[in-house]
From TrEMBL:
Gene3D superfamilies: 2.40.40.20, 3.40.50.740, Dimethylsulfoxide Reductase, domain 2 (3.40.228.10). This is Molybdopterin-dependent oxidoreductase alpha subunit. It holds the Pfam family Molybdopterin. InterPro entries: Asp_de-COase-like_dom_sf (IPR009010), MopB_CT_YdeP (IPR037951), MoPterin_dinucl-bd_dom (IPR006657), Mopterin_OxRdtase (IPR006656), Mopterin_OxRdtse_a_bac (IPR010046), Prok_molybdopt-oxidoreductase (IPR050123), YdeP_MopB (IPR041953). It comes from Dyadobacter jiangsuensis. One of its GO terms (biological process) is cellular respiration. GO terms for cellular component: membrane. Residues 125-500 form the Molybdopterin oxidoreductase domain. Its cofactor is Mo-bis(molybdopterin guanine dinucleotide); [4Fe-4S] cluster.
């Protein structure tokens, strides 16, 4: 066993028994249908489970709590618009199992810490508010009133509001998020870190600087009109399965699909749509036309190689490759950018990216003749040191081709959590704009703080240093999702009070401050009843569509509160007479919250009326309209050099990725079916040559080490799995290896932990 200073902070090093099978050639089909139904019925029961599934992503139903992929604007699949992993996210939430005070009295915090994330997640929904007193070994029941009073007292006792931190995960509704940031700012701080800081922050930063809006520009309809779709650093078969349906349709309309990934991800390679009979029978599987198996973080070199070849082609036949009209009208910095490109040699760049030159030439040929190009990306681009620069390079390529602000073309950062984009729109941001704060001040008659707050990495450091003392989380699993698990555990333990608004038990409840509270809330699928009315909330998807979401299931316990209600009661308990906000009225009537969102945030005119229309409404998007909200009103080319990989002898690069059976830190099962890995999560995927160099065989046990910044980090007991991954690249599952992700290694400008770029050395496993 490792020397673990903080009991319960990590997954125990128990192996569960690896079984291996072939890597699957196609995603979905019958196994996906079976897997979705199995979990739904076993967790929620037949009636409850089916009720949930039939209402998932239907107009008037509830928004899938899994990813942020949009629903079709018009026709939706007759039975239900969901995928295997959406169904499993619902099953996870709709489970009929619950954790009452009795459960917590029988199991100490220490005992629960010995369970794996898979075992913890299977325990059920938290059924009542729980409190862990200072020095206590077991959580005890507490009334809602007493819980709010305790938090209010602690918050008011702090020397400054900046000693409190208010985290948000991305499932929180627009209504709850708006109230939450309003409360936090009236209380007096901008310490509003969120999961975005670890997710698409690099995209927001890059797009904001290049194009004037931190969101993607495409709609679902653009997919159906695109000529080329590039997919970089994203695994939609597992993480956004409904995207495969859109890709299939795009392909049927003639689009060429280019996938750029160190792994031949099954969903990208082939797809059998489970919502069509032919798909279930296994028809037309191929999706990707060109697969570029890039080395980890080789994307920038690859993009530059493509651009160099495009420039050469343009010089041979001016006007045939670049969209000169678009460039002249809409962009700035193109000449300097092209001048800089001339220093590079495409062949060398291709070698740096790990891609055969002929393949890069093929891609350049495809792109040269096309103008309706969409670029999609996710964590494979955002969680690197140079993530912001790489995403700007994606934009550079689109700008050269005039592929922004026209049908069938544009940017598509594919968001993670189902309302992560909406939370940001509502003001969950540690660095709010002056425009936003002015609007708060004008509408609510208090002066919000103007100094920037902590993001995720900064708040961990502040808690560790004793500069932040109260940690409040609106959802999420902060300990497991953040980098450097042991450091973060010490940071949380340093706090006076840690509070989690949660649906399910997770590790962050078990590694706590001096005192701790768990406040159980309603989930997306739960009915939110008030005066006989089942109320709805609203969310924004990855393409900027605002839609209502109304739960359909009886909550597992009468003691659950909705998130908006929790914020209102927290605000009253903390601010009392000081507050200028009508919290009671908001808690009673969500329409009033939406009215005030409309007054405060642009784009929400007639919110209450339009959100009630089937399918909701689109928020304005300047890029979509061909406009760029930068200081110059032009799109900007940015110049940056590809990062050289600096691996020393014996070192490897590790990316931490999701298996098929998890939603972030929630582990649904132990299989990663598409990758042919069953019944085990403590695996490291390695290239055959790297294994040979180290005398390793498939199935050997190893320990993983990282020494960034002179700190010795170790993750014990991982099983070596030979896999078709480029040399010097490895992959492991998050969160088991978060212990190795250095808190001090972050992306430039966005401060996102570099979870896909962890330098590793490997030793044979020591001990048992
Ligand atoms: N079922 C399910 N759905 C989810 C989630 C989940 O956990 N489970 N999580 C949600 C959230 S919050 C998010 S952010 C998204 C995450 O969605 P993804 O970003 O698809 O998730 P990851 O597993 O992190 O996958 C990253 C992909 O990038 C590739 N990659 C890694 N490094 C590089 C690189 O340097 N270059 C390139 N080109 N590729 C690279 C990996 O091989 C992998 O295919 O999914 C959301 N949806
Ligand atoms: N190494 C590594 N680390 C990563 C990543 C990676 O790729 N590699 N990915 C990062 C990314 S992209 C993200 S987004 C973060 C995710 O970070 P988080 O969002 O903090 O983590 P989740 O695992 O999604 O949170 C799950 C918990 O949320 C609670 N929950 C679920 N639904 C609700 C709800 O409706 N309301 C409330 N109040 N609570 C709810 C449940 O209690 C559940 O245990 O992790 C990041 N961490
Ligand atoms: Mo995410």
């Amino acid at each position: 066993m490792s020397e673990n200073p903080i009991p319960g902070s990590e997954n125990p090093e128990k192996l569960t028994g690896l079984k291996q099978g072939p890597i699957k050639k196609v995603a979905a089909g019958i196994p996906a249908v079976v897997s979705a139904l199995e979990m739904t019925v076993s967790e929620a029961g037949l009636e409850r489970g089916m009720k949930a599934l039939f209402n998932l992503n239907q107009k008037g139903g509830f928004d899938c709590p899994s990813c942020a992929w949009p629903d079709p604007d018009d026709e939706r699949s007759g039975i239900a618009e969901y995928c295997e992993n959406g169904a499993r996210a619902v099953a996870e939430e709709a489970t009929a199992k619950k954790l009452t005070a009795e459960f917590f009295s029988q199991h100490s915090v220490q005992e629960l810490g010995k369970l794996s994330d898979y075992e913890i997640g299977g325990k059920g929904r938290i059924a009542e508010p729980m409190f862990l007193p200072a020095g206590g070994t077991h959580y005890q029941p507490i009334t809602w009133d007493a819980a709010f009073e305790k938090i209010g007292t602690e918050l008011n006792r702090l020397a400054s509001p900046d000693e409190a931190v208010f985290y948000t995960s991305g499932r929180t509704s627009n209504e709850a998020a708006f109230l939450y940031q309003l409360f936090v700012r009236e209380y007096g701080t901008n310490n509003l870190p969120d999961c975005s800081n670890m997710c698409h922050e690099s995209s927001g930063t890059a797009l904001g600087e290049s194009l004037g809006i931190g969101k993607g520009s495409v709609t679902l309809n653009d997919f159906y009109q695109a000529e080329v779709i590039m997919i970089l650093g994203q695994n939609p078969g597992t993480n956004h399965p409904r995207m495969l349906t859109a890709l299939q349709k795009a392909k049927a309309n003639g689009a060429t699909i280019i996938s750029i990934n160190p792994l031949p991800e099954t969903g990208l390679m082939g797809f059998n749509n489970p919502q069509t009979v032919l798909g279930v029978l296994g028809y037309k599987p191929g999706l990707t036309d060109i697969f570029l198996q890039v080395k980890i973080n080789g994307d920038m070199a690859l993009l530059k190689a493509i651009e160099v070849l495009l420039l050469e082609a343009e010089q041979k036949a001016p006007g045939s490759v670049f969209d000169q009209h678009f460039i002249n009208q809409n962009t700035q910095g193109c000449n300097e950018f092209l001048q800089d490109l001339t220093q590079y040699n495409a062949e060398q760049l291709a070698a740096q990216a790990g891609i055969p030159f002929a393949q890069v030439q093929e891609v350049a040929r495809v792109l040269a003749g096309k103008s309706r190009i969409i670029a999609c990306w996710a964590m494979g681009l955002t969680q690197h040191k140079n993530a912001v620069a790489t995403i700007k390079e994606v934009v550079n390529l689109l700008l050269l081709k005039g592929s922004i602000g026209k049908p069938g073309a544009g940017t598509c950062p594919v968001r993670g959590h189902s309302n992560v984009q909406g939370d940001r729109t509502m003001g969950i941001f540690e660095r709010p704009t002056a425009r936003f704060l002015d609007s708060i001040e004008k509408n609510f008659h208090f002066a919000p703080p103007r100094n920037h707050g902590y993001d995720v990495v900064e708040c961990i450091k502040a808690m560790h240093a004793g500069e932040a003392k109260v940690f409040f989380a609106m959802g999420g699993n902060f300990l497991s999702a953040t980098p450097d698990t042991r450091f973060t555990a010490e940071a949380l333990q340093n706090c006076k009070l840690t509070v989690h608004v949660s649906t399910k038990l997770n590790r962050s409840h078990l590694v706590h401050g001096q005192e701790a509270l768990i406040l159980p809330c309603l989930g997306r699928s739960d009915k939110d009843m008030r005066n006989g009315e089942n109320r709805f909330i609203s969310c924004e998807n990855s393409m900027g569509v605002i839609q209502s979401s109304r739960g359909v299931l009886q909550p597992v316990s009468e003691h659950l509160l909705s998130e908006p209600e929790i914020v209102c009661r927290l605000a009253k308990a903390t601010l009392g007479e000081r507050s200028k906000v009508t919290w009671d009225q908001y808690a009673a009537d969500y329409d009033l919250i939406r009215t005030d969102i409309e007054r405060t945030i642009p784009g929400f005119a007639d919110y209450n009326e339009r959100v009630r229309q089937p399918g909701g409404f689109y928020l304005p998007n300047c890029n979509r309209a061909g406009d760029f909200d930068t200081p110059t009103r032009k799109a900007h080319f940015h110049i940056a050099a590809p990062e050289k990989q600096h691996l020393k002898d014996g070192e490897l690069m590790m990316m931490t990725i999701r298996s098929h059976d998890q939603f972030n830190t929630t582990v649904y099962g132990l299989n990663d079916r598409y990758r042919g890995i069953y019944n085990e999560r403590r695996v490291i995927l390695m290239n055959a040559k790297d294994m040979q160099d180290r005398n390793l065989k498939n199935g050997d046990l190893v320990d993983l080490h990282n020494h960034y910044d002179g700190v010795a980090r170790v993750a014990h007991k991982f099983i070596v799995v030979e896999y078709p991954i480029p040399e010097q690249c490895t992959a492991t599952y998050f969160p088991e290896t978060n212990v190795l992700v250095p808190i001090t290694s972050v992306a430039e400008k966005s401060n996102t932990p570099t979870s896909k770029m962890v330098v590793l050395t490997i030793t044979p496993h020591q001990g048992f």
